[in-house]
Amino acid sequence: MTEQPAAGDGAVAGTRRVWILAFVGFLLTIGAWSVAAPYDGTPDEREHMIRAAGVAAGEIAPPPADAKKGSGAFQDVPAGLVREQCWQFKPAVSAACAVPPGSDDTPVRAGTGAGRYHPVYYALVGWPLDLWPGWSGVLLARFISAGIAAALLASAFVVAVTWSRRRLMIAGLLVAVTPMAAQMASAVNPNGVEIAAGVAFFAATIPLFLDRRPKPHHGLLILAGISGLLLAMLRQTGPLWLAAAFVAFAFPWRQSNVGRLVREKAVWWWVGGIAVAAVTAVGWGVVMKTSDLGKYGGHVYTYGQAALAETDRWRGYLDQMVGVTSWLDTRMPAPIYLTWQFVAATLLIGAFVFGRLVDRWRLLVLIVAGTVVPSVMQVALVKQTGFVTQGRYMLPMLAGVMLFAAYVWEERGLDATRSRTLVRISVILLLPIHLFVLILTMVRWQDGLPKYLTFRTFNPFAGDWHPPLGSITPLLASVLGLTLLGVLAWRVSMRPLDEADETASAISEPAPDPR
To answer: pLDDT, tens digit, for every residue of 439-457?
Structure first.
Protein backbone atom coordinates (compact mmCIF):
# COMPACT_ATOMS: atom_id res chain seq x y z
CA MET A 1 0.00 0.00 0.00
CA THR A 2 1.35 3.40 -0.96
CA GLU A 3 1.60 5.79 1.96
CA GLN A 4 -0.44 8.94 1.47
CA PRO A 5 1.43 12.20 1.93
CA ALA A 6 0.69 14.19 5.04
CA ALA A 7 -1.62 17.15 4.66
CA GLY A 8 1.20 19.59 5.21
CA ASP A 9 3.58 18.03 2.68
CA GLY A 10 2.21 20.11 -0.18
CA ALA A 11 2.64 23.33 1.77
CA VAL A 12 6.20 22.38 2.70
CA ALA A 13 7.03 21.58 -0.91
CA GLY A 14 5.46 24.85 -2.03
CA THR A 15 7.46 26.80 0.54
CA ARG A 16 10.66 25.07 -0.53
CA ARG A 17 9.91 25.88 -4.17
CA VAL A 18 9.30 29.55 -3.36
CA TRP A 19 12.58 29.70 -1.43
CA ILE A 20 14.56 28.17 -4.30
CA LEU A 21 13.04 30.52 -6.87
CA ALA A 22 13.58 33.55 -4.64
CA PHE A 23 17.16 32.47 -3.90
CA VAL A 24 17.95 32.11 -7.61
CA GLY A 25 16.33 35.48 -8.32
CA PHE A 26 18.27 37.30 -5.62
CA LEU A 27 21.52 35.51 -6.47
CA LEU A 28 21.26 36.50 -10.13
CA THR A 29 20.34 40.08 -9.26
CA ILE A 30 23.19 40.45 -6.76
CA GLY A 31 25.64 38.33 -8.74
CA ALA A 32 25.18 40.62 -11.73
CA TRP A 33 26.90 43.33 -9.72
CA SER A 34 29.64 40.88 -8.69
CA VAL A 35 30.67 40.19 -12.28
CA ALA A 36 30.13 43.78 -13.48
CA ALA A 37 32.43 45.55 -11.02
CA PRO A 38 36.15 46.18 -11.45
CA TYR A 39 38.57 45.27 -8.68
CA ASP A 40 37.84 47.47 -5.66
CA GLY A 41 34.75 48.69 -7.48
CA THR A 42 32.63 49.30 -4.38
CA PRO A 43 33.44 51.31 -1.25
CA ASP A 44 36.42 49.91 0.66
CA GLU A 45 36.37 46.52 -1.10
CA ARG A 46 40.15 46.38 -1.38
CA GLU A 47 40.45 47.01 2.36
CA HIS A 48 38.08 44.14 3.10
CA MET A 49 39.74 41.82 0.60
CA ILE A 50 43.12 42.31 2.25
CA ARG A 51 41.55 41.64 5.64
CA ALA A 52 39.79 38.53 4.29
CA ALA A 53 42.93 37.14 2.67
CA GLY A 54 44.87 37.77 5.88
CA VAL A 55 42.28 35.96 8.03
CA ALA A 56 42.22 33.05 5.59
CA ALA A 57 46.01 32.80 5.91
CA GLY A 58 45.69 32.53 9.70
CA GLU A 59 46.39 36.15 10.69
CA ILE A 60 43.13 36.60 12.58
CA ALA A 61 44.06 39.29 15.13
CA PRO A 62 46.91 41.42 13.76
CA PRO A 63 48.22 44.07 16.17
CA PRO A 64 46.35 47.39 15.77
CA ALA A 65 48.57 49.80 13.88
CA ASP A 66 48.59 53.07 12.01
CA ALA A 67 47.88 51.37 8.68
CA LYS A 68 45.42 53.89 7.28
CA LYS A 69 44.98 57.39 8.67
CA GLY A 70 45.70 56.32 12.20
CA SER A 71 43.65 53.12 12.24
CA GLY A 72 43.58 49.58 10.83
CA ALA A 73 46.33 46.97 10.83
CA PHE A 74 48.81 45.25 8.54
CA GLN A 75 48.22 41.81 7.01
CA ASP A 76 50.36 39.38 5.01
CA VAL A 77 48.50 38.82 1.74
CA PRO A 78 49.25 37.71 -1.85
CA ALA A 79 50.91 40.45 -3.87
CA GLY A 80 48.30 40.05 -6.62
CA LEU A 81 45.67 41.68 -4.40
CA VAL A 82 47.67 44.81 -3.59
CA ARG A 83 46.63 47.33 -6.20
CA GLU A 84 46.33 51.11 -6.22
CA GLN A 85 43.37 52.77 -7.87
CA CYS A 86 43.22 55.78 -10.17
CA TRP A 87 39.53 56.28 -10.93
CA GLN A 88 37.73 56.42 -7.57
CA PHE A 89 35.79 59.65 -6.94
CA LYS A 90 36.48 60.60 -10.58
CA PRO A 91 33.27 59.66 -12.40
CA ALA A 92 34.61 60.76 -15.79
CA VAL A 93 37.53 58.29 -15.55
CA SER A 94 36.96 54.63 -16.41
CA ALA A 95 38.48 51.66 -14.59
CA ALA A 96 40.84 50.98 -17.50
CA CYS A 97 43.65 52.96 -15.87
CA ALA A 98 43.88 50.53 -12.92
CA VAL A 99 45.97 47.36 -12.73
CA PRO A 100 43.66 44.32 -12.32
CA PRO A 101 44.24 41.69 -9.61
CA GLY A 102 46.93 39.18 -10.50
CA SER A 103 47.91 35.62 -9.69
CA ASP A 104 51.12 36.57 -7.87
CA ASP A 105 50.83 34.76 -4.52
CA THR A 106 54.08 36.13 -3.07
CA PRO A 107 53.28 37.28 0.50
CA VAL A 108 53.56 41.04 1.03
CA ARG A 109 52.75 43.24 3.99
CA ALA A 110 49.74 45.44 3.23
CA GLY A 111 47.89 47.93 5.38
CA THR A 112 44.09 47.90 5.59
CA GLY A 113 41.57 50.06 7.39
CA ALA A 114 39.54 46.88 8.04
CA GLY A 115 42.42 45.11 9.79
CA ARG A 116 40.82 45.29 13.25
CA TYR A 117 37.36 44.05 12.32
CA HIS A 118 35.67 40.90 13.64
CA PRO A 119 37.03 37.90 11.68
CA VAL A 120 33.91 35.73 11.19
CA TYR A 121 32.76 37.22 7.87
CA TYR A 122 36.29 37.32 6.50
CA ALA A 123 36.87 33.66 7.36
CA LEU A 124 33.81 32.74 5.28
CA VAL A 125 34.79 34.67 2.14
CA GLY A 126 38.58 34.96 2.36
CA TRP A 127 39.91 31.52 1.41
CA PRO A 128 39.52 31.97 -2.40
CA LEU A 129 41.53 35.21 -2.17
CA ASP A 130 44.35 33.41 -0.40
CA LEU A 131 44.36 30.44 -2.80
CA TRP A 132 43.73 32.22 -6.11
CA PRO A 133 44.47 35.96 -5.73
CA GLY A 134 43.61 36.82 -9.36
CA TRP A 135 40.17 37.38 -10.85
CA SER A 136 39.08 33.79 -10.13
CA GLY A 137 39.58 34.22 -6.38
CA VAL A 138 38.04 37.70 -6.37
CA LEU A 139 34.89 36.56 -8.18
CA LEU A 140 34.52 33.44 -6.03
CA ALA A 141 34.84 35.49 -2.83
CA ARG A 142 32.20 37.88 -4.15
CA PHE A 143 29.89 34.99 -5.05
CA ILE A 144 30.19 33.50 -1.56
CA SER A 145 29.16 36.81 -0.03
CA ALA A 146 26.37 37.20 -2.60
CA GLY A 147 25.16 33.66 -1.90
CA ILE A 148 24.91 34.28 1.85
CA ALA A 149 22.94 37.47 1.25
CA ALA A 150 20.67 35.79 -1.32
CA ALA A 151 19.89 32.94 1.09
CA LEU A 152 18.92 35.41 3.82
CA LEU A 153 16.76 37.48 1.46
CA ALA A 154 15.06 34.38 0.03
CA SER A 155 14.22 33.29 3.57
CA ALA A 156 12.76 36.73 4.28
CA PHE A 157 10.68 36.43 1.09
CA VAL A 158 9.27 33.08 2.25
CA VAL A 159 8.34 34.62 5.60
CA ALA A 160 6.56 37.47 3.80
CA VAL A 161 4.59 34.94 1.74
CA THR A 162 3.78 32.66 4.69
CA TRP A 163 3.18 35.09 7.54
CA SER A 164 2.12 38.34 5.89
CA ARG A 165 -1.67 38.32 6.16
CA ARG A 166 -2.22 39.83 2.72
CA ARG A 167 1.31 39.60 1.30
CA LEU A 168 1.94 43.32 1.75
CA MET A 169 5.25 42.58 3.47
CA ILE A 170 6.52 41.62 0.01
CA ALA A 171 6.26 45.31 -0.90
CA GLY A 172 8.20 46.20 2.26
CA LEU A 173 10.86 43.66 1.27
CA LEU A 174 11.15 45.08 -2.25
CA VAL A 175 11.56 48.59 -0.83
CA ALA A 176 14.18 47.42 1.68
CA VAL A 177 16.36 45.65 -0.92
CA THR A 178 17.55 48.73 -2.79
CA PRO A 179 20.09 48.77 -5.65
CA MET A 180 22.64 49.99 -3.08
CA ALA A 181 21.89 46.93 -0.95
CA ALA A 182 22.39 44.70 -4.00
CA GLN A 183 25.69 46.37 -4.90
CA MET A 184 27.05 46.03 -1.37
CA ALA A 185 25.90 42.40 -1.12
CA SER A 186 27.80 41.65 -4.34
CA ALA A 187 31.14 42.82 -2.96
CA VAL A 188 33.58 41.56 -0.36
CA ASN A 189 32.25 43.79 2.40
CA PRO A 190 30.40 42.74 5.59
CA ASN A 191 27.96 45.64 5.15
CA GLY A 192 26.20 43.81 2.30
CA VAL A 193 25.56 40.67 4.33
CA GLU A 194 24.63 42.85 7.31
CA ILE A 195 21.89 44.53 5.27
CA ALA A 196 20.54 41.15 4.16
CA ALA A 197 20.73 39.86 7.74
CA GLY A 198 18.79 42.93 8.89
CA VAL A 199 16.05 42.22 6.34
CA ALA A 200 15.86 38.55 7.39
CA PHE A 201 15.99 39.35 11.11
CA PHE A 202 13.09 41.80 11.02
CA ALA A 203 11.07 39.64 8.62
CA ALA A 204 11.29 36.84 11.19
CA THR A 205 10.99 38.78 14.45
CA ILE A 206 7.92 40.80 13.48
CA PRO A 207 5.57 37.78 13.24
CA LEU A 208 7.51 35.90 15.91
CA PHE A 209 6.80 38.62 18.48
CA LEU A 210 3.46 39.94 17.24
CA ASP A 211 1.48 37.41 15.20
CA ARG A 212 -1.17 35.65 17.32
CA ARG A 213 -2.23 33.00 14.79
CA PRO A 214 -1.74 29.41 16.02
CA LYS A 215 0.85 28.40 13.43
CA PRO A 216 4.21 26.58 13.86
CA HIS A 217 6.94 29.19 14.22
CA HIS A 218 10.09 27.06 14.38
CA GLY A 219 11.26 28.36 11.01
CA LEU A 220 10.86 31.94 12.22
CA LEU A 221 12.91 31.17 15.30
CA ILE A 222 15.73 29.61 13.27
CA LEU A 223 15.83 32.52 10.80
CA ALA A 224 15.75 35.10 13.61
CA GLY A 225 18.53 33.20 15.40
CA ILE A 226 20.85 32.87 12.41
CA SER A 227 20.37 36.44 11.23
CA GLY A 228 20.63 37.71 14.80
CA LEU A 229 23.99 35.94 15.21
CA LEU A 230 25.21 37.58 12.00
CA LEU A 231 24.04 41.02 13.07
CA ALA A 232 25.78 40.61 16.41
CA MET A 233 29.15 39.88 14.79
CA LEU A 234 29.36 41.57 11.38
CA ARG A 235 29.65 45.23 12.34
CA GLN A 236 29.75 47.33 15.50
CA THR A 237 26.21 48.62 15.01
CA GLY A 238 24.73 45.11 15.18
CA PRO A 239 24.07 45.05 18.95
CA LEU A 240 22.26 48.40 18.60
CA TRP A 241 19.92 46.96 15.94
CA LEU A 242 19.22 43.90 18.09
CA ALA A 243 18.48 45.97 21.19
CA ALA A 244 16.18 48.31 19.26
CA ALA A 245 14.22 45.37 17.82
CA PHE A 246 13.73 43.90 21.30
CA VAL A 247 12.57 47.21 22.79
CA ALA A 248 10.21 47.82 19.88
CA PHE A 249 8.55 44.42 19.70
CA ALA A 250 8.72 43.07 23.26
CA PHE A 251 7.02 46.06 24.88
CA PRO A 252 4.31 46.33 25.97
CA TRP A 253 4.46 42.74 27.15
CA ARG A 254 0.70 42.13 27.03
CA GLN A 255 0.55 42.97 23.30
CA SER A 256 3.40 40.73 22.23
CA ASN A 257 4.22 37.03 22.25
CA VAL A 258 7.00 37.35 24.81
CA GLY A 259 5.05 35.44 27.46
CA ARG A 260 4.72 32.45 25.15
CA LEU A 261 8.25 32.63 23.79
CA VAL A 262 10.00 32.67 27.17
CA ARG A 263 8.46 29.28 27.95
CA GLU A 264 10.25 27.66 24.99
CA LYS A 265 13.67 26.11 25.58
CA ALA A 266 14.79 26.69 21.99
CA VAL A 267 14.22 30.42 22.40
CA TRP A 268 16.63 30.55 25.33
CA TRP A 269 19.29 28.67 23.36
CA TRP A 270 19.09 31.17 20.52
CA VAL A 271 18.96 34.18 22.85
CA GLY A 272 21.96 32.84 24.75
CA GLY A 273 23.91 32.28 21.54
CA ILE A 274 23.15 35.78 20.26
CA ALA A 275 24.04 37.29 23.63
CA VAL A 276 27.38 35.46 23.70
CA ALA A 277 28.09 36.54 20.12
CA ALA A 278 27.25 40.16 20.94
CA VAL A 279 29.36 40.23 24.12
CA THR A 280 32.24 38.57 22.28
CA ALA A 281 31.97 41.10 19.46
CA VAL A 282 31.96 43.99 21.91
CA GLY A 283 34.98 42.49 23.67
CA TRP A 284 36.74 42.11 20.33
CA GLY A 285 36.03 45.75 19.59
CA VAL A 286 37.49 46.88 22.90
CA VAL A 287 40.65 44.78 22.56
CA MET A 288 41.21 45.56 18.88
CA LYS A 289 40.08 49.21 19.17
CA THR A 290 37.73 48.88 16.22
CA SER A 291 35.87 52.05 17.23
CA ASP A 292 39.05 54.04 16.53
CA LEU A 293 38.25 55.10 12.97
CA GLY A 294 41.40 57.15 12.56
CA LYS A 295 42.12 60.85 12.48
CA TYR A 296 41.08 62.70 9.36
CA GLY A 297 41.68 66.21 10.76
CA GLY A 298 40.81 69.61 9.42
CA HIS A 299 37.36 69.82 11.01
CA VAL A 300 36.64 72.80 13.24
CA TYR A 301 32.89 72.43 13.72
CA THR A 302 31.21 73.30 16.96
CA TYR A 303 28.71 70.67 18.00
CA GLY A 304 25.86 72.99 17.03
CA GLN A 305 27.32 73.52 13.58
CA ALA A 306 27.90 69.79 13.19
CA ALA A 307 24.30 69.04 14.18
CA LEU A 308 22.93 71.41 11.55
CA ALA A 309 25.33 70.07 8.93
CA GLU A 310 24.32 66.50 9.77
CA THR A 311 20.64 67.42 9.39
CA ASP A 312 21.37 68.84 5.96
CA ARG A 313 23.24 65.69 4.94
CA TRP A 314 20.14 63.52 5.36
CA ARG A 315 18.97 64.44 1.88
CA GLY A 316 22.11 62.73 0.61
CA TYR A 317 21.75 59.78 2.99
CA LEU A 318 18.30 58.99 1.60
CA ASP A 319 19.67 58.97 -1.94
CA GLN A 320 22.63 56.83 -0.88
CA MET A 321 20.24 54.24 0.56
CA VAL A 322 18.68 53.87 -2.88
CA GLY A 323 21.87 53.98 -4.90
CA VAL A 324 24.76 56.40 -5.16
CA THR A 325 26.90 53.66 -6.58
CA SER A 326 30.51 52.78 -7.41
CA TRP A 327 32.60 54.70 -4.84
CA LEU A 328 29.73 57.09 -4.02
CA ASP A 329 30.67 58.89 -7.22
CA THR A 330 27.80 57.82 -9.50
CA ARG A 331 24.48 59.55 -8.94
CA MET A 332 21.26 58.58 -10.66
CA PRO A 333 18.76 61.02 -12.22
CA ALA A 334 16.48 62.54 -9.57
CA PRO A 335 13.31 60.63 -10.59
CA ILE A 336 15.03 57.36 -9.64
CA TYR A 337 15.41 58.48 -6.03
CA LEU A 338 12.02 60.17 -5.84
CA THR A 339 10.21 57.08 -7.15
CA TRP A 340 11.83 54.74 -4.64
CA GLN A 341 11.37 57.16 -1.76
CA PHE A 342 7.73 57.74 -2.76
CA VAL A 343 6.93 54.02 -2.41
CA ALA A 344 8.78 53.91 0.93
CA ALA A 345 6.94 57.00 2.19
CA THR A 346 3.61 55.48 1.12
CA LEU A 347 4.19 52.43 3.31
CA LEU A 348 5.38 54.52 6.25
CA ILE A 349 2.57 57.07 6.14
CA GLY A 350 -0.02 54.32 5.72
CA ALA A 351 1.28 52.58 8.83
CA PHE A 352 1.12 55.77 10.90
CA VAL A 353 -2.38 56.59 9.65
CA PHE A 354 -3.91 53.16 10.17
CA GLY A 355 -1.76 51.92 13.05
CA ARG A 356 -2.77 51.96 16.68
CA LEU A 357 -0.85 53.79 19.37
CA VAL A 358 1.32 50.76 20.12
CA ASP A 359 2.16 50.42 16.41
CA ARG A 360 3.26 54.05 16.24
CA TRP A 361 5.39 53.53 19.35
CA ARG A 362 7.15 50.58 17.73
CA LEU A 363 7.71 52.44 14.48
CA LEU A 364 9.11 55.38 16.41
CA VAL A 365 11.60 53.18 18.27
CA LEU A 366 12.85 51.67 15.01
CA ILE A 367 13.10 55.05 13.27
CA VAL A 368 14.96 56.67 16.16
CA ALA A 369 17.41 53.76 16.37
CA GLY A 370 17.98 53.83 12.61
CA THR A 371 18.29 57.59 12.11
CA VAL A 372 18.66 59.67 15.26
CA VAL A 373 21.18 57.46 17.08
CA PRO A 374 23.63 57.23 14.12
CA SER A 375 23.36 61.00 13.59
CA VAL A 376 24.05 61.72 17.25
CA MET A 377 27.11 59.45 17.10
CA GLN A 378 28.29 61.21 13.95
CA VAL A 379 27.99 64.64 15.56
CA ALA A 380 29.78 63.46 18.70
CA LEU A 381 32.76 62.14 16.68
CA VAL A 382 32.89 64.73 13.90
CA LYS A 383 35.99 66.50 15.28
CA GLN A 384 37.99 63.27 15.13
CA THR A 385 36.61 61.56 12.02
CA GLY A 386 34.79 64.17 9.97
CA PHE A 387 31.51 63.19 8.33
CA VAL A 388 32.03 59.50 7.61
CA THR A 389 28.43 58.26 7.93
CA GLN A 390 26.83 56.85 4.77
CA GLY A 391 23.24 55.97 4.02
CA ARG A 392 24.04 52.28 3.57
CA TYR A 393 25.05 52.00 7.22
CA MET A 394 21.41 52.58 8.27
CA LEU A 395 19.86 50.12 5.82
CA PRO A 396 19.79 47.08 8.17
CA MET A 397 17.62 49.01 10.62
CA LEU A 398 15.51 50.93 8.13
CA ALA A 399 14.71 47.64 6.38
CA GLY A 400 12.92 46.77 9.61
CA VAL A 401 10.99 50.02 9.41
CA MET A 402 9.72 49.17 5.91
CA LEU A 403 8.78 45.60 6.79
CA PHE A 404 6.99 46.62 9.97
CA ALA A 405 5.19 49.49 8.21
CA ALA A 406 3.81 47.01 5.66
CA TYR A 407 2.85 44.62 8.47
CA VAL A 408 0.96 47.33 10.36
CA TRP A 409 -0.87 48.66 7.34
CA GLU A 410 -2.19 45.29 6.22
CA GLU A 411 -3.10 44.32 9.81
CA ARG A 412 -5.03 47.52 10.57
CA GLY A 413 -6.36 49.02 7.39
CA LEU A 414 -5.58 47.66 3.92
CA ASP A 415 -7.75 44.95 2.39
CA ALA A 416 -6.49 42.10 0.21
CA THR A 417 -7.30 43.74 -3.12
CA ARG A 418 -5.48 46.97 -2.35
CA SER A 419 -2.57 45.10 -0.76
CA ARG A 420 -2.17 43.11 -3.97
CA THR A 421 -2.29 46.34 -5.98
CA LEU A 422 0.41 47.94 -3.85
CA VAL A 423 2.67 44.88 -4.18
CA ARG A 424 2.28 44.96 -7.93
CA ILE A 425 2.92 48.70 -8.10
CA SER A 426 6.13 48.06 -6.16
CA VAL A 427 7.15 45.39 -8.67
CA ILE A 428 6.45 47.67 -11.64
CA LEU A 429 8.14 50.75 -10.19
CA LEU A 430 11.10 49.33 -8.28
CA LEU A 431 12.51 46.32 -10.09
CA PRO A 432 13.28 48.16 -13.37
CA ILE A 433 15.22 50.71 -11.30
CA HIS A 434 17.65 47.93 -10.30
CA LEU A 435 18.48 47.34 -13.96
CA PHE A 436 18.78 51.05 -14.73
CA VAL A 437 21.17 51.63 -11.82
CA LEU A 438 23.30 48.66 -12.86
CA ILE A 439 23.51 49.88 -16.47
CA LEU A 440 24.50 53.42 -15.52
CA THR A 441 27.11 52.16 -13.07
CA MET A 442 28.55 49.81 -15.71
CA VAL A 443 28.83 52.76 -18.07
CA ARG A 444 30.64 54.70 -15.35
CA TRP A 445 33.13 51.85 -14.80
CA GLN A 446 33.64 51.04 -18.46
CA ASP A 447 33.70 54.44 -20.13
CA GLY A 448 33.36 57.13 -17.47
CA LEU A 449 30.40 59.50 -17.28
CA PRO A 450 30.23 62.82 -19.10
CA LYS A 451 29.34 65.97 -17.19
CA TYR A 452 25.87 65.96 -18.74
CA LEU A 453 24.06 62.69 -19.39
CA THR A 454 22.46 62.00 -22.77
CA PHE A 455 20.63 58.98 -24.17
CA ARG A 456 23.83 58.00 -25.98
CA THR A 457 25.49 57.72 -22.57
CA PHE A 458 23.52 54.57 -21.74
CA ASN A 459 25.57 52.07 -23.71
CA PRO A 460 26.86 49.33 -21.37
CA PHE A 461 28.76 47.68 -24.24
CA ALA A 462 31.07 50.63 -24.97
CA GLY A 463 34.23 51.77 -23.19
CA ASP A 464 37.90 50.94 -22.78
CA TRP A 465 37.34 48.63 -19.79
CA HIS A 466 35.03 45.60 -19.66
CA PRO A 467 34.19 43.10 -16.89
CA PRO A 468 36.29 39.91 -16.86
CA LEU A 469 33.26 37.85 -18.00
CA GLY A 470 32.16 40.42 -20.57
CA SER A 471 29.50 43.12 -20.44
CA ILE A 472 26.63 40.89 -21.58
CA THR A 473 26.94 38.51 -18.60
CA PRO A 474 25.88 40.92 -15.81
CA LEU A 475 23.08 42.34 -17.95
CA LEU A 476 21.62 38.92 -18.70
CA ALA A 477 21.96 37.85 -15.06
CA SER A 478 20.22 40.99 -13.85
CA VAL A 479 17.34 40.72 -16.35
CA LEU A 480 16.78 37.04 -15.49
CA GLY A 481 16.99 37.62 -11.74
CA LEU A 482 14.70 40.64 -11.68
CA THR A 483 12.18 38.95 -13.99
CA LEU A 484 12.11 35.89 -11.75
CA LEU A 485 11.61 37.99 -8.61
CA GLY A 486 8.96 40.11 -10.29
CA VAL A 487 6.95 37.14 -11.56
CA LEU A 488 7.25 35.42 -8.19
CA ALA A 489 6.09 38.48 -6.24
CA TRP A 490 3.28 39.07 -8.72
CA ARG A 491 1.98 35.52 -8.52
CA VAL A 492 2.16 35.03 -4.75
CA SER A 493 0.37 38.35 -4.21
CA MET A 494 -2.68 36.72 -5.87
CA ARG A 495 -3.16 34.36 -2.93
CA PRO A 496 -4.24 36.20 0.23
CA LEU A 497 -5.37 34.18 3.24
CA ASP A 498 -8.61 32.36 2.68
CA GLU A 499 -11.73 33.03 4.67
CA ALA A 500 -11.11 30.16 7.11
CA ASP A 501 -7.63 31.44 7.95
CA GLU A 502 -9.00 34.93 8.52
CA THR A 503 -11.68 33.58 10.87
CA ALA A 504 -9.18 31.49 12.84
CA SER A 505 -6.80 34.39 13.26
CA ALA A 506 -9.61 36.70 14.34
CA ILE A 507 -10.60 34.21 17.05
CA SER A 508 -7.01 33.85 18.28
CA GLU A 509 -6.35 37.59 18.50
CA PRO A 510 -7.25 39.88 21.40
CA ALA A 511 -9.90 42.51 20.88
CA PRO A 512 -8.63 45.64 19.09
CA ASP A 513 -7.34 48.49 21.19
CA PRO A 514 -9.89 51.34 20.76
CA ARG A 515 -7.03 53.84 20.69
So the answer is: 999 999 999 999 888 888 8
Cα-based angle 15, 228, 378 (whole degrees, multiple of 5): 130
Among candidate residues 216, 184, 452, the one with its CA nearest the CA of residue 326: 184
Query: How many Å apart are CA 30 and CA 152, to the nearest integer?
Result: 12
pLDDT at 9 over 90: no
Q: Contact 431/485 with Cβ under 8 angstroms? A: yes
**DSSP 8-state code for residue 299:** -
Question: Which of 110, 109, 137 lies closest to 125, judged by CA?
Answer: 137
The dihedral of CA 79, 80, 86, 91: what is its sign? negative
The residues facing 111 across adjacent strands are 74
Distance CA 385, CA 318 (A): 21
Compute the distance between CA of residue 437 and CA of residue 403 in angstroms, rounded to an integer.
23
pLDDT of residue 506: 33
pLDDT-derived band at 10 (thresholds 50, 70, 90) equals low
Contact 256, 209 (CB under 8 A): yes
Closest CA to 347 of 395, 449, 419, 287: 419
Residue 6 pLDDT > 50: no
β pairing state of 64-68 and 71-78: antiparallel
